[in-house]
C-alpha cells in the first residue's frame, strides 16, 4: 500500500509543476444587475443571464481523458507527447488544438488545469481575486522553508513559495516600503554607479573579436548581485572589479552566484520531473538543498553585517527616505528575522530574473539595429557625455528605452505564465468552472497572439509609445503601423495585484540604467543566429550570449 501511495505521489508531482504558475484564489461572481429573476425565486437568488447561459464544465475543450489514466500519461517520459521540460511548447499546442479555453483534467489526484488564452477572461479572474491569494507554487521551496529549515524560517516564511495567512502578514510588513516609488528612486545614484562599473568591465573582458565570453549570463549575474545587495543590504561586494576571473573561487560573491545557478539549475529537475526527493534523497535534491543552504548562509552573513551597521548608527537620526531598505524594514518591524528573510527572498529570485530580462533585451537590440540606433539617439540626447551619471530626471526622458524593455518582456516573458486557484465556482469563457480548479494564464502565448499584438513576432517598441509622448521627433508612436492601446492583462511580466513582484521598481530601474549605459557606449551585435529559449524554470536563453561590442564614436 505504501509503495502504491508513493508511486501515485511521483505521478502527480510533474502535473503540479504545470500549475506552479497558476496559483492564487480568484472569485468570479456573475453580474446579476441585468438578470431577470424567475417568478419562483426571490431577486437576490436569481441567476444572471451569464449564469443561465453557462455551459457545463464537462463541455470545456481539452485533451481526451483515458479510463483510469486520465491525462496524466501525456506528461510522462517516453509514452507522453507533452514534455514537462517544454511547457512553452505545450501551451502553444493546447491553444492551437483547442482554442481560447482549454481543460486538462484527469490528473490523478491533482486539481484540473484550465488554460485561459483570452485577455478579457484573464482580467475578470484577476480583478475578482479574493483578498488573500492562495499560491501553492514551488512545493520543494515550501518544503525547504517549512520543514527542513523551519528552525530558521519559523513563522517568518517570506513571500516566495508561500501562501495564506503567513504570506499575507509578511507581505503587509514590507510592501509599503518596497513598492513606494520614492524608495526605488533613492537608489538611482548608487545603481547608476554599479551600471557604470559593469560597462567598464565589458571593455576589459572582450576577446580579440570584441565579443563577450560565452558565459555572459554569469557576467550579468555579477551585475545584478552587486545591484541587489546594494539595494537590500546597503553593501558592496566588489563583483565587478578586475578581469574575467578576478573573483577567487572561494570568494563570497562567486559562491553566491554559483549557489543561485545551482538552485535554478536543479529547480527544473526537482519541480518538473518525478519528485523522487519526496521519498529518496537523490543527488539532484542534495545539490538543490546544498545550494539553498549555501546561499542562505552567505546571505545571512551579509544581513548580520548590515544590521550591525544599523545598530552602530542607531543614535543617528535621519529621515526614512535616506535609510537603506534593510534599515527601514528593521526600524518599522523591529524584527531582524523579517529583514533577513526579505533579503533572502529578494536576492534568491531577483538576481536570475533581472539578468535574464537584460540578456533578452540586449539580444533584441542586437538583432534589430534600427531600433538600437533609435534608442542610442534617445540616450545620447539625454546623456551627451557618456561618462556622466543618469538621474531620475534623465530616466523620465527615455520613453523608447522603457518601450524596448516592455516589448522584450512581451515577446519573451521571464515567467511564462501566471494564474489563480479558484476558491469558488466561476464562469470563465462561457463555462461553469468548479472551485479548486487551477486557472493558468499563459502570458508567453497570449502576448504573442496576432489578435492582441499585430505582427507579434516583430520587435516593435513603438507599439508601447503614446502619440507625441515625450520630447523630440522620435518620441511618439507616429508612423508605427501596429501602434494601439494594448490590453492591460495580456502582458504582465511582473504579475498583478497583491501577488505583483515586490521588487518591480528596483528591477525596472536597474534595467533602464544598465541598458542606457551599454547602448550609449557600445553598438551591440549578435552574429550567431536566432536565440533559443528553455525553461529553467525562468524562460532563459539557451545559447551562449557572445555579443559583439563595438565602441561608439
Automatic annotation (TrEMBL):
It is found in: Endoplasmic reticulum membrane; Microsome membrane. InterPro entries: CYP11_CYP27_families, Cyt_P450, Cyt_P450_CS, Cyt_P450_E_grp-IV, Cyt_P450_sf. Belongs to the cytochrome P450 family. This is Cytochrome P450. One of its GO terms (cellular component) is endoplasmic reticulum membrane. It comes from the Eukaryota. Heme binds at residue 501. Its cofactor is heme. CDD domains: CYP24A1-like. It comes from Gryllus longicercus. It is a peripheral membrane protein. Pfam families: p450. GO terms for molecular function: heme binding; iron ion binding; monooxygenase activity; oxidoreductase activity, acting on paired donors, with incorporation or reduction of molecular oxygen. The keyword Heme applies.
